[in-house]
Amino acid sequence: MILVLLVFSTIALFLSFIYVHRNSLRLTLTVIFGLLLLTSLVFISKNDGQHYGMVQTTTTKTTTLASAGSSKQMDLLLYQSVGTADKHRVYIYKNTASQKKVQHTKADTKVANHVKTTTGTPKLVTKTTRWTYQSNASKFWFGLADNDSQLVKRTNYFYVNKNWVVLSTTQAKAFSKLMKQQQTTLKARAKVYVQNQVKAAMVKNPTMSQAQIAKISKAAAAQYQANAIQSMLATVKQNQ
């Protein structure tokens, strides 16, 4: 509405100055419409530069978080660095395991991302702060400026468990390549590792049942796989 007032006072000032011939009336109208024009300009400037009539409103949204990768061996949170200094990152994730396409945070200086460790269920908490009009009167006067709900900042908090792995997209590609290269070797070494663990367990308990042996074999295979993955991850992170 204040833009309408600005246009109206400008036109009225021009008309009164040009077409009103009585000096006293012209002076009065010029002062009135001139003040309206100046007042409109001042408040438009304050609204645009200082967000006059507005307040910052923060909303919080919590969603579930699922691995960005398709592997069942580990849960992944990926990121892509923006720029060469790695000061800003775009994080890649899924909200549910059944989700086909991944999502990503926005590459914007107003968007910040933080990764935190939790013992609870993985989740994404997004806090968004926007400029909103503090009253209907403020919105009535300045609403035409189309700056309602203007983004101030957005902060994404990724809460992941300790077993989650956070990798850049480059590191993830390198890890996948290394896994394929080492697949045959890892399978052979895993077999030997499991056999040795079973032998060691049978030395301690020669009367173990087949169910006990199967349980030990399964645990040994899982342990070897976890150790191998951690070793390859360390290699990838060191080289990338």
UniProtKB/TrEMBL annotation:
InterPro entries, A to Z: DUF4811
Membrane-crossing residue ranges in chain numbering: 26-44
Highest taxon above the source species: Bacteria
Any Pfam family: DUF4811
Assigned keywords, A-Z: Membrane, Transmembrane, Transmembrane helix
Protein known as: DUF4811 domain-containing protein
Organism: Lactiplantibacillus xiangfangensis
